[in-house]
Amino acid sequence: MTASTTTNHALPMLELRGLGKSFELHHQDDTHLDVLSDIDLTLHAGECVVLSGPSGAGKSSLLRVVYGNYRTSRGTVRVRHDGDWLDLTEATPHQVLDVRRRTLGYVSQFLRVIPRVPALDVVAGPLVEAGAHVEEARDRSSALLRRLNVPERLWRLPPGTFSGGEQQRVNIARGLIVARPLLLLDEPTASLDGGNRDVVAELLQEASAAGTAVLGIFHDDDMRHRVATRLFPMRQLSIA
Amino acid sequence: MSALLQVRGLSHHYGQRVGCQDVSFDLHPGELLCIVGESGSGKSTLLKTVAAQLTASSGSVRYHQRDDSWLDLNELDEAGRRRLAREEWGFVTQNPRDGLRLNVSAGANVAERLMAKGMRNYGQLRAIAKGWLERVEIDPARVDDAPTSFSGGMQQRLQIARTLVTQPRLVFMDEPTAGLDVSVQARILDLLRRLVNELGLAAVMVTHDLAVARLLAARTMVMQGGRVVETGLTDQILDDPQHPYTQLLVSSVLTT
Amino acid sequence: MTSDYNFAFLDENTKRMLRRALLKAVAIPGYQVPFGSREMPLPYGWGTGGIQLTAALLGPDDVLKVIDQGADDTTNAVNIRRFFARVTGVATTERTSEASVIQTRHRIPETPLREDQILVFQVPEPEPLRTLEPREAETRTLHALADYGLMHVKLYEDIAQYGHIATSYDYPVLVDGRFLTSPSPIPKFDNPKLDRSPALMLFGAGREKRLYAIPPYTHVESLAFDDHPFEIQRWEQQCQLCGSGDSYLDEVVTDDRGSRLFVCSDTDYCGQRRAEPAA
Question: HEC profile for chain B?
Fold first, then answer.
């Protein structure tokens, strides 16, 4: 494993060119904040690229820009969607939504709780949105929750009251239930114990083996070593 | 995918005063779009103009019909507008008492649109009404009770049942949860989320509550002074607001 | 005739205005035509609409009958009959079969009507949708669009509250498959007589300034649900005076100990039957 770009004959899935992100904070003395600059990255099918660098280097921001959660200030984010390249920085919201539904998954650090929706359906949701039958989606959801050791008695409850670790596992299950070819992971294992990390590592390795391209942030070295095929170093931009 | 509704350059003026100005957007089938902004920003005016309850001062609204033809609302007469409002669309008002018929039973409220469409079997109407009460979590045993005996949250759920009973393709909602307790709100939002998914409804919802937009809508439009100042994916607008007004709106949200 | 009034009380221009409105009403069966209702020498609610219509219709050769709840001898009927006798000098009668114009409050005679007869109804509220929709502009739009689901809301509500359609008078009808119409507060027992009646039926609402018509032989349908069809009242009793088993009966309390008498509401019909020699 090296930090340099290795030649890869697998299909490129994601291509970032000259990517930059700045924030203009209109109500805070019109502060201009550069968080990303000149990022070039190509991600291939089956690869797991882990972003490395100090806190504040913009790793989470990069994932958010790729996901379309943040708008791009400069450069392009090209995604292979339905076999064709699509530049997300120029895509319509409807196109971005379609990419998210079928091509691009994102697991954040924290589960966004939906009031009154039980964990089983929180996880099954994306699969239903992707067109699966509710029963089939619930079966997949059950299997994932079981594998991630979420106690069965919790499945029927909304995850609002779950512990941090339980919520994170529900979140991972939700992120992985649809087998999308591109996966963004923002420290999905931060509050998991060793046993559950092993499960997540296994799940990610299975996804990679199936051709999923992963771009992620993992804080602990052990996890990073187990899943990363390559590191992508990032450094903090000097504040102008 | 083709749009269900196409709004172009839509304006409504109250005399010299601007209600909404030069608004354009597309709504796709099965999509829920939120319009956010503070009181007086023109959200409700826009909603009512799109829903043909107010006459557009300029601009157009086009509706994609089931037979794949486009209907220009400017060219529609009163009969056509009413047919559309009754059979294809629904409108949920902020105050359920404005959208309900308070002097008749809950069952009659739910069944009214079916009767307007020509259904003439009492037993069937009543069975459907009961089924819908159950769907909106009202005890079907209360089918003959007057809506005045219901709580505010129940009245709002009754209005939702009354609106959705004819399975409209497009529903307009004007602050459907404003003025309700937080717990009651959560229940209605969950209900709306579920029904919109189950029925594959498209919806335009006006709200001043950004959390509502985050929970329900994939896309959001931000209005200020009658104009749309920002539009896009809801999470993008809330997490990376661009326009000064949107930044102010997002930073003004109280978090618990 | 020694009256100082114009023939039939109203001036000729007013009568002309009324006739024009009546022609329009006949041309659009069930449609409520606005008219310039005049002050009449009796209060609103006493039949001012019906009286104006009758005044516009009567000619010197007409024979007038006036009934109130089927009876020729009640205050309202007696006064209106006397009024027209004074201001027109036309002949009056209590016999349904002899009359050319019959003004009625709340009944249709039991004796079948003929093509050469006109029935004039006194109408307190011409708008059948009014109790559900108070806005006149809205009810007019609903009529224009034939958007009548609302009326069934009322019938639905009846069944929900009483187990059957409890509306027993002023029962809404659809005239000629087009206009929802109030038959005036006649008992629903009389509704079937509206359907394809040989006689012209005219309706006048003086306070509300509306008149409408059901021309001869027009189809008049009483609204209902498929599983709750329209039904008329039936009595276990027969008329205790004439023995009729198929006329509309009034229940008359005869003393303060609860004794009751069931008699025909149509006094002429009852009297005729009693006068006939027993077969």
Answer: CCCCEEEEEEEEEECCEEEEEEEEEEECCCCEEEEECCCCCCHHHHHHHHCCCCCCCEEEEEEECCCCCEEEHHHCCHHHHHHHHHHHEEEECCCHHHHCCCCCCHHHHHHHHHHHCCCCCHHHHHHHHHHHHHHCCCCHHHCCCCHHHCCHHHHHHHHHHHHHCCCCCEEEEECCCCCCCHHHHHHHHHHHHHHHHHHCCEEEEECCCHHHHHHHCCEEEEEECCEEEEEEEHHHHHHCCCCHHHHHHHHCCCCC
Cβ separation C132–B82 shorter than 8 A: no
Chain B CB within 8 Å of residue C137 CB: no
Please answer yes or no on whether B218 and A24 come within 8 Å at the CB atom. Answer: no
Mean pLDDT of all residues belonging to chain C: 94
Residues A21, A92 within the same domain: yes
pTM of the complete model: 0.87
C24-62 residue pLDDT tens: 999 999 999 999 999 999 898 899 999 999 999 999 999
pLDDT at A78 over 60: yes
- How far does the CA of residue B137 sit from the closest CA of chain A (Å)? 13
Question: Are residues A133 and A173 both part of a single domain?
Answer: yes
Range of the domain at B107: 101-166
Residue B138 domain flag: yes
User: Is B253 among the domain residues?
Assistant: no
Q: Let me know whether A133 and A238 are in one domain.
A: no
Q: Which domain holds residue A128?
A: 108-179
Task: Indicate which residues of C carry an active-site annotation.
Answer: 30, 239, 242, 264, 270
Best to test chain B binding among C131, C141, C157, C162 (most B CBs inside 10 Å):
C157
Q: Which pLDDT score, from 0 to 100, does residue C201 have?
A: 98
Indicate the number of domains in chain A: 2
Residues lower than pLDDT 70 in chain C: 1-3, 277-279
Are chains A and B touching, using the cut-off of 8 Å on CB pairs and a minimum of 3 such pairs? yes
Which of B79, B118, B121 is nearest residue C145 as measured by Cβ atoms?
B79
Residues in A closer than 8 angstroms to B222, CB to CB, are: none
Chain B nearest-CA distance from C229, in A, is: 10
CB–CB contact A116 B218 (8 Å): no
Asked if residue A91 and residue A64 are part of one domain, the reply reads yes
Same domain for A188 and A169, yes or no, is no
Per-residue pLDDT tens over the stretch A129-179: 888 899 999 999 999 999 999 999 999 999 988 998 999 999 999 999 999
Asked if residue A186 and residue A69 are part of one domain, the reply reads yes
Which value does ipTM take for this structure?
0.88
pLDDT at residue B134, rounded to an integer: 95
Question: Are residues A199 and A99 part of one domain?
Answer: yes
**Tally of domains within chain B:** 1
